[in-house]
Each structure stands twice: as C-alpha cells, then as structure tokens.
Amino acid sequence: MLRIKKLIVHYGPFMALNKISLEVNVGEVVTLVGPNKAGKTTLLLTLSGIVETTEGRVLFQDADITNLDPYKIVARGLGHVPQGRHIFPTISVFDNLMVGAYIRRKAKGEIEEDLTRIYELFPVLKKRGKQRAGTLSGGEQQMLAIGRALMGRPNLLMLDEPSSGLAPRYIDEIFAAFQELNRRGLTIFIVEQEIQRSLAISHRGYVLRNGRLIKKGPAPALVESREVQELCLG
Ligand SMILES: Nc1ncnc2c1ncn2[C@@H]1O[C@H](COP(=O)(O)OP(=O)(O)OP(=O)(O)O)[C@@H](O)[C@H]1O
Ligand SMILES: [Mg+2]
Fold this sequence. Notes:
By secondary structure, the protein is of the alpha/beta class. Helix content is 39%, strand content 26%. The chain has helices at residues 40-47, 70-75, 93-101, 108-121, 123-127, 138-150, 168-183, 195-200, 219-224, 226-233, and strands at residues 2-11, 14-24, 29-33, 55-60, 63-64, 78-81, 156-160, 187-192, 204-209, 212-218. The site of magnesium ion (MG) has 4 residues, from helix 1.
C-alpha cells in the first residue's frame, strides 16, 4: 500500500532522513519506533506532502505521491493524526469531526455512517459533541484527532506518537481502537517512542535513529530486542 524508496530529507544543510526505505502492506499494522529527534515526525510530514523530499520516492496505492500537495494526498486516502493532536479548541467536537469530512464532499448518508462508526469506537465524542473541543481531556482530544482523520475515510491511517502524554487508561483505549479499526480492514502506520503497547498490536516494526533505519523485523522480535529497549528507554 505504501512504499518508501531511499527517501532523503533535509532541513537546510541538516539531513533529517537518510535513505529511508520501508513498506506498509494492505491490512498491516506497522510501527516505527525511535527516540527523540530520530526523524519520526519528519517522515510522516514528508509522506503527507508538508515537508519536501530531497531525493527518493513515495508510492501510495501504486501512484507516485512524492511532493504532491497535502490536500491531494489526503484525498487519495492517506490520513494523518499529527503529533500534539492539533484539534481546533474553540469550535465544537462535532465541528472538528466535520472538518475531517470536508475533503470528501461526499453524500450526507456516508458522513452519517462514518459518524456512527466513530461514535461506536469513541462514545465520548458523541456525548460531548456540542462542547468546545478545548474542554476535552488530553486523551479525549487524541480520540477526536483520530475521529477527525477517520472522517476522511482513509485507506491508510498514520499516527504520530498517539500515546504521548496520556494517562494509561486512555492509552489502552486508543490502542484497543487501533486493533478494532485494523480488524475492520484499516491499514495503520504508527510512529512511537512507547514500544511495548505499539509493538504489541503491530505485525512488523522498524527502528529509526538519527534519521537512519537501523533495524526492522516482526514486532515480537523487536519488543524482545535489548538494543531496541535501551534505545527507546533512553
Ligand atoms: N523545521 C525544522 N527545521 C530544522 N530542523 C528541524 C525541523 N524540524 C525538525 N528538525 C530537526 O530534525 C530532526 C528530527 O526531528 P523530528 O521532529 O522529525 O524527530 P522526532 O523523531 O519526531 O522527535 P520527537 O520524538 O521529539 O517528536 C531533529 O534533529 C530536529 O531538531
Ligand atoms: Mg515527533
């Protein structure tokens, strides 16, 4: 579904990503783990067309999407839940969800259908629909950011450190939701520092350090790896 070939990304003279090649196949949950400043966010921003590629290619569903405009990439079905969530705090929870549906301009029936599914997954978003989004707790805001991305009906959902700063019970709920979404057919790509929970729900994983991929393999093998544990626990 997603194929990244020898991707190089610079910020000015600084090379943030150095020849990254990775794949996410249809139906998989794949996690890329890495410590602070490894380049995780840079990778997702590049895939979404927000940061420009120096060299290399990004293929999504067999089409070359390298350096395409961000809105065109979303419209092709690549959803992105950004680091820090970036919900719109002064508008309602419901309106935040509708922002996610905007790109589609699809029939009302489809939007209703998607809302129903998202409310099943995160009932709090229905309960608090009329509230300003900024009044939600951190975990609820993360659910909203995920719901907003799902309203775009992605084929592949990318998430940037979804567990960051959340209480354990929210982390459990969010990772359970990823499993449920994957069971329903969604392909998922997570970047995380928290390796235990994310690799526990993943099929495969990659390890990024200083802009380079240093390891890859089946998720259970990476969880067991001492090197990976030490890297991510600092
Ligand atoms: N806009 C920018 N301009 C210059 N350098 C940047 C910019 N954004 C990120 N960097 C640098 O690129 C490197 C990778 O940063 P990035 O945010 O992608 O890492 P990360 O793995 O997401 O880190 P974190 O775990 O802290 O979110 C870091 O050294 C960072 O300082
Ligand atoms: Mg980051």
